[in-house]
Amino acid sequence: MIKYLSRFIPIITLIVATIFVTLPLSQQGWFDVHDPTAVARLSMLKSTLGEGQIPAAWNNMLNNGFGYPLFLYYAPLFTYFSALISLATPTLILAIKLTLLSCVVLSLLGMYTLTKKYGRYNALLATVCYAVLPYHALTIYVRGAFAEVMVWTLLPWVIYYWTNPISTRKQILAPSLITAAFLLSHNTVVWFILPILILIIIFLQKRVDRPRSVLALALSFLLTSFATLPIIFEQSFVQVARVATQTKLSDHFLNFTQLWHSAWGYGGSAPMGESDGMSFMLGKFPLVLLALSLFRTIATRSLSRYKFIVFLITFGFAYATTINSQWLWNIFPLAEFIQFPWRLLLYATFGIAYMVAWLLPSEIEDLKGSTITVILSILLIYFSSPFFQPQEIRNYDDRTFLSKPTLATVAKDKIPEYLPTWMPQFPESESSDGLTRSSTRVTGQIENKLVQTLTIQTAYMPHWKLNLNGYPTDIVPNPDGTIRTHAPVPPGTYAVDLTWQQTPVEKLGVVLSLVTLIVVLGLAL
């Protein structure tokens, strides 16, 4: 009877953990978070894609009608996933809630699949631990950093496929695709996966498998070319470097004590933890389980090279969030782009949950294993229960986030890093040139009474192509960053057609991604 009932423990445990983490999402309305732009991003992405701009890059509805290249640079995966789900939902908020629910389910399935080799009960314990980590609550219900939600969703799957043999051509498919998806989930923190994968290839994979592993890694990068090439080679088109360096990296290191305890809150990150309004603790009970797991591993002499590497990587990421690691960050010139070193808690907490899977003997019998797993899972959920709830759920709907005043200023207030370089500051008033704007196009008529250049109140970028009365016309930026004709035009009425075109770099990225996708699928056949 016990053996029969134990078959249902995994599914029951996963369901309970999912419900615990996502229960606030079932309530009507939405909650305030640090980044409240998810609904606006989703709406703008859908309108951009709906007008045939694939991959999405620009939307004219943002930035007071002057337009904004949000999707050209922002990590696309979470918003694209939400757009797909929104095809079956009546509201955008519901689509985002279902996307978050899907992410939680996928993350738990990934952690269970990854750690199942240590025994079913160990895998369940690690999965529950992964679900209820305080940093995950912080990411969803305090920060609203949904791109990072996608990162910790895919991380167990990435590690799973890379720690399995890549011995045949078909086995290249899964690690290539999942790693590409992982790299598309965030612009900065995902790149810290590279040293992990390199260590796996060097120390954990067989020598005969290494060439295919390197090929899989190369294919992953090529698959993401459509998104990464503009970020690498066209970063000078926007002010991301200037905005990123305004946040001093040195102001946002943690003290070691904050990893053990820091008061839970819904505020922001303050310089050097002096008055942080949110918590960065790893979780006291998960750390207790980690300590017990490490003690048992050492006591039973089962500390393999693989486990030792996992421990070092986990400790390394935790250390990298603290002020003691500042010397290390100073070595890397691009470090300031991560802005907040504590973002690496994402990897540290993953390592903690993973090492909890070493706690119980893999051959533990069903009654004892199920009893211990249930008790420890209940304790994990109990100690984490204060964190997995928003500060307040408000009566928000889609219109709250899509009103004209909100869309006019959301880029300036929350996503200022993608302001085109030619525009020295965000416009204070709405564009008023009388032209008609869809998400990706500007059309209409301009009456010119003198021999003069014509101005279109749209933010200049090299992508724009202007036709006047059906004829191509060269354009240049005005001092305020809007578009004007390169040469004066005679008096008359002009039909304006301003369209967005991909640059050669962006076209190359799309071609590389498509060709690589065909190659990857071909290798699997």
Structural notes for this entry:
This protein is an alpha+beta fold. It has one domain (2-392). The chain contains 23 helices and 10 strands. It has helices at residues 2-6, 9-22, 38-50, 70-73, 77-86, 92-115, 120-131, 134-143, 146-162, 173-183, 193-204, 210-223, 225-233, 240-246, 256-260, 284-299, 305-320, 326-329, 345-356, 366-384, 398-402, 404-414, 504-524, and strands spanning 30-31, 393-394, 436-437, 441-448, 455-459, 464-468, 471-473, 475-477, 482-485, 492-500. The strands form 3 sheets. It has a 5-stranded antiparallel sheet with strand order 3-4-10-6-7, with no helix packed on it. A 3-stranded antiparallel sheet has the order 5-9-8, with no helix packed on it. Strands 1-2 form a two-stranded antiparallel ribbon. β8 and β9 form a beta hairpin. α3 crosses α5 (77-86) and α6 runs parallel beside α9. The longest helix has 24 residues, at 92-115. It is elongated and about 90 Å long.
